[in-house]
Specification:
The chain has eight helices and 23 strands. The protein is of the alpha+beta class and 457 residues long. Strands 7, 8, 9, 11, 12, 13, 15 and 16 form an eight-stranded antiparallel sheet that branches. The protein has a six-stranded mixed sheet with strand order 2-3-1-4-5-6, with helices on both faces. A hairpin with a 2-residue loop joins strand 18 and strand 19.
Length: 457
């Protein structure tokens, strides 16, 4: 029995019953975002993916037909599947990040449709922060322009492991192989400096559906997979950091039950594994307390297991009765993290008020929140050229730059290029509780030492 893909606004009468859990095959999840310049066809591409893969419910198809009059001409606009704001539909642009979900028998997908305008760079960073793969759309007529370069550079800065350059609107250039080859050559000149290892170029027409779900009869010169085939088969199993166990503790699990004697003295520590593998009997270290113990049991939603790995959510029981609370981190004794109150990071500034040295914030890193002050702004990054500019007086809205921070207590972390979960943070304005920046930590200079009283060199 097939499973109906999860979509928003689905109606119960159109759903098909899912098979029992034990009979379902293991299907992984691919998170990807679409980006590129305005009018390159990002929203239309997602609409085409959903439409041609038959991942739409009846009520969504009906709503799509009803919305045709908004764009004029009575034509169904596939971009309306993601451009949900009326302002987006009227202007034909994407403003906010839109998330959509669909599935095929081989994989589940979470799509983030991110804006193309430069003024919405912060929205693009937010939508791409958890992506395994980025699709950069390029208009075949315009080729590589500044905004296409900007979003490709952001993909590299955010350390997204896989990149697809989708050369769109091939129908408007006569399905020209020469034009596709020229655009690919433009990209290949600056891609090496971004550090993206896996890059795929696919010629498509999102409007007509060529090479999106079904292979194109107009481009026999392209021997590669369609976009959906690539999304279904790209290898993401090694994207997570499996070196160095990290469990930021989210809460202390005490499920007292008068009817179950096994839960009477149960005390576990729950959270999402942010790195590495944990096994029963493995020695672990609690930070910042410094206690060493071993793992007694590992519990998941499906029951106890002998081992677990990133990014599973687990509850650990430890062999010794140690004091652990939310915000602390349980780690393995190999591949130790950094620990320091002095941090260097790249940040994307998301607030209209300019960031200047001396401002105080709350820094949220994994499950802990600490007070922090910006001590210096080192430089601003020109995303269009990937070059650094001299240290500015402040960072304006949508600027990306390197800053230094001083926290009230040590933060235990990995460099963002090594671990995107323990290497990222957000800054929160204390008075308004608004998220004002997203940050990516540089590699630590001080490494945790279990035999030290302060656990840093």
């Amino acid at each position: 029995m097939s499973v109906v893909p999860f979509t928003t606004n689905s109606h119960p009468r159109t759903a098909i019953a899912a098979p029992p859990v034990e009979s379902r095959p293991a299907v992984d999840i691919l998170r990807f975002n679409t980006c590129g310049s305005v009018d390159d066809g990002k929203s239309t591409l997602i609409g085409r993916l959903l439409y041609d893969s038959k991942s739409l419910m009846e009520d969504q198809l009906e709503a799509l037909e009803r919305s045709a009059d908004i764009t004029g001409g009575g034509q169904v606009n596939l971009a309306n599947l993601t451009d949900g704001l009326r302002a987006e539909r009227e202007q034909g642009i994407t403003i906010d990040v839109a998330y959509r979900y669909f599935a095929t028998p081989r994989r589940k997908f979470i799509i983030a449709d991110t804006p193309g305008h430069i003024q919405y760079t912060r929205n693009m960073v937010t939508g791409a922060s958890t992506a395994n793969l980025a699709i950069v759309l390029v208009d075949a007529r315009a080729g590589l322009i500044e905004q296409s370069r900007r979003h490709t550079c952001l993909t590299g800065l955010l350390r997204i492991p896989h990149l697809v350059v989708a050369v769109n609107k091939m129908d408007l250039v006569g399905w020209s192989e020469e034009r596709f080859t020229a655009i690919r050559a433009e990209f290949e000149q600056f891609l090496p400096r971004l550090g993206i290892q896996d890059v795929k170029f696919i010629p498509i027409s999102a409007l007509l559906g060529d090479n999106v779900v079904d292979a194109s009869a107009h481009m026999p010169w392209y021997p590669g997979p369609t976009l959906l085939q690539h999304l279904e088969t790209v290898h993401i199993g090694s994207d997570w950091n499996l070196h160095g166990f990290r469990l930021p503790v989210q809460w202390v699990n005490r499920p007292h039950s008068p009817t179950d004697p096994n839960l009477h003295d149960f005390r576990g520590f729950s959270g999402q594994i942010a790195g590495g593998i944990v096994r029963v009997g493995q020695p672990v270290l609690v930070l910042p307390g410094g206690q060493t113990t071993t793992v007694k049991e590992i519990h998941t939603f499906d029951g106890p297991v002998a081992e677990a790995f990133c990014p599973q959510s687990v509850t650990l029981r430890l062999a010794d009765d140690v004091d652990v609370s939310r915000g602390q981190m349980i780690i393995g004794l190999d591949h130790l993290p950094g620990g320091s109150c002095d941090l260097r990071a790249n940040v994307c500034w998301m607030h209209p008020r300019v960031l200047q040295p001396g401002r105080k914030f709350l820094l949220k890193h994994t499950t802990q929140t600490v007070q922090a002050v910006v001590t210096a702004i080192e430089h601003r990054l020109d995303i269009s050229t990937y070059e650094t500019a001299p240290a500015p007086a402040g960072l304006a809205l949508n600027d990306i730059g390197e800053i230094r921070l001083r926290t009230a207590r040590p933060v235990f972390f990995d460099g963002y290029e090594l671990n995107r979960l323990t290497g990222s943070f957000i800054l929160i304005e204390p008075g308004t509780h608004a998220t004002v920046a997203a940050g990516m930590l540089h590699a630590p200079t001080e490494i945790v030492r279990p035999d030290s009283t302060d656990f840093v060199i």
